[in-house]
C-alpha cells in the first residue's frame, strides 16, 4: 500500500480549513437572534433569519453543487452512451432554483415557517406531517450516504488509504461543526466549499487539456476518436425518459428541506427569491469545469497515461472519471490541490442534509407532534442527538450497503412524486384536506414503486406502456441479469396522479360530509367537520405552543382554507392593521378566534 504524503497533507489542510471555518462561524454567531428573542433551536435551524446576499448566494448554490454534482456531471459527459445531452443536473437543478424562487420562496418565507413540513402540519394535521417526514428523511439520509460513499471512492484514487477510515473521519468532522454551529456553520463552510471546488478544478483543467495524451475536445465532441462523441444525443425512443428525468430534477429539486432551510434563513421574502436566482446562475457556472473534465476523459488515449491501456469505462470506474483525470493527466502538485479541494467539498456537502433531517425531526415530529410543551433547551438537545444519530446512520449506510445510489434514486423519486404535489396543493390549491393528502400519498407511492428500480433489483409490478427488457451487469455481483426498462415517463405521471388525487379526494370528502351523505361521526381524521380540532396545527398551535414562530412574522393563515394564489404573494404582516382586521372579521373561521 502506497501512501502519497503530499495527497494526505493537501486533504488534511483542506479539512482543517473547513473545520476551522465551521467553528469560527459558530463562535461568531453564538449570540445571534438573542436580541430579537429568537429561540436557540430556531437559530440552529434557520440562523437568525439574517443570512445576507453574499453568504446566502454561496450557501444556496451549495444546496446542489457538492461532490455528487461535480462527479456526476463529469461522469455523464464521459459515458459513451450518454454524453453532454444526458448530463441534465446543471440545467435541471438551475431551473429548479428558478421555479423555486418564482413560486415557492416568497409564500414560504413570508409566512415565517421554520421547516418545509410546517405548512403540511398546519393544514393536514400532525399525523400527516409525520407521514410526509418519512420520504423527506429518507431523501436526506440517502443523499448524505451517497455523498460519503463517493468521497470514499475519490480518496481511494488519490491516496491508497482505507476507504472506511476516510469516510468515518470526513463524517465526524462534518457532524462536529454542524453540532457546534447549526446553520451558520453550514452556510459559512459552503462559501469555502464552493471556492475550493472552483479554484481546485479550474487550476487543473488547463493542465489536463494540454496533456499530450488528450486530443482536441472540440473534435471529439462531434467525431469518434477513442469513443463515441462526448456531445451525446437522445434517441427518439428515449425522449420520454429524458423528459421524465428532466422534470424530476427541475420540479423534484424543489421540495427539499436543504433548499427551504436556506430560503427560510434569508432576511426577507424578496431576498429568498434573489438568492434562488443567484444560486441558479451559480449552479451553471460551477458545472463548466466538470463538463470539461468529462470531455477530457472522453478525448484521452489512456494507453499513454499512468492509468493503463484499459479506459475507465471498461474497468467500471466511469463514476470516478473526475478524480482519475486529475490524478493521471495533471502534475502531482496540481492533482493533489484539485483532489484535496474536491474531497473537502464532498465532505462539506453532507452537513446540510444531516442538519435538515434533524431540524424536521426535532420540530415537526418531537415538538409539534409529541411534546408541545417542550422547552427550547430540550429541543436543542434533541437536535444535537439527532444530528449525531442521522450522521451516524448515513455513514453506516455509506460503508455497509453497496446499493446506496439505488436507495438515493428511489427516495429522490418519492420526494418528487409524493412531497412535490402535496407542497403544490398546500400552498396554491384552495380546499384540499387530510383525506386528499392520504390518497395522494398512496397514489404516488404505489405508482412509483410499481415501476420498479433496476439498481435495487426491485422488479416492477406495474408494466407501463413501451417497457422493454435489457441484459445488464449487476454493479455488485458482476453477473449479467435481465432487467425491465420503463420507457414511459411514469415518475411524472405518478406525480400528476398524486396531485389530481389530492384535489379529487379532498373535494369528494368535503362534499360527502358537508352534504350529509356521510355522517359527521365518520370524519375520523377531523379534516372536514372538526376543522379546528387540536389535531390540526393551526396558527394558534404553531404560535402559542413552543413559541417557535413570532406573531410578528407569522402571516394570518386560515387553517382549513389554503391561501389563494393572489394572497400567497402578499406578505400580510406588511399590510396596515385595519386591513388584516377587516379580512379576519370576514373570514369563515373568525368565529373560532372569537370563541378562543
From TrEMBL:
GO annotation, cellular component aspect: axon; dendrite; perikaryon; presynaptic membrane
Source taxon at top rank: Eukaryota
Pfam families: SSF
Protein transport recorded as keyword: no
Entry's transmembrane regions: 7-27, 85-105, 131-159, 165-184, 191-209, 239-259, 271-296, 333-358, 379-400, 406-428, 435-451
InterPro entries for this protein: Choline_transporter, Na/Glc_symporter_sf, Na/solute_symporter
Keyword terms: Glycoprotein, Ion transport, Membrane, Neurotransmitter biosynthesis, Sodium, Sodium transport, Symport, Transmembrane, Transmembrane helix, Transport
Compartments where found: Presynaptic cell membrane
Keyword match Membrane: yes
Function of the molecule: High-affinity Na(+)-coupled choline transmembrane symporter. Functions as an electrogenic, voltage-dependent transporter with variable charge/choline stoichiometry. Choline uptake and choline-induced current is also Cl(-)-dependent where Cl(-) is likely a regulatory ion rather than cotransported ion. Plays a critical role in acetylcholine (ACh) synthesis by taking up the substrate choline from the synaptic cleft into the presynaptic nerve terminals after neurotransmitter release.
Family from the record: Belongs to the sodium:solute symporter (SSF) (TC 2.A.21) family.
Assembly description: Homooligomerizes at cell surface. Interacts with SEC14L1; may regulate SLC5A7.
Protein's name in the database: High affinity choline transporter 1
Native source organism of the sequence: Sphaeramia orbicularis
The gene coding this protein: slc5a7a
